[in-house]
Amino acid sequence: MKNVFKLSGGEVSLLDQSIKTEYLFQVGPYQVWAPIQKQLEKPLTKEVRPGDSVLLYCLFLNEHSSNGLFNTFLVSEFMSQ
To answer: Which backbone phi and psi does 23 adopt, to 5 degrees?
Structure first.
């Protein structure tokens, strides 16, 4: 995630400051771990309970490297359903 952010002109240190935790989301038959912006953690845990439906707005980061393809969804906003 840091590599892609850096390539797109972003300041990598901002990621270190704003992202501390990943959450596990069930998307259909799949389970997806996604990092979430620090300022959204309290509202997410307050508004959304396990099993609830939630609409996630994410920054999609796609890295191609010699080790393969890595896709990361950074949760930047959400809406309880």
So the answer is: -120, 150
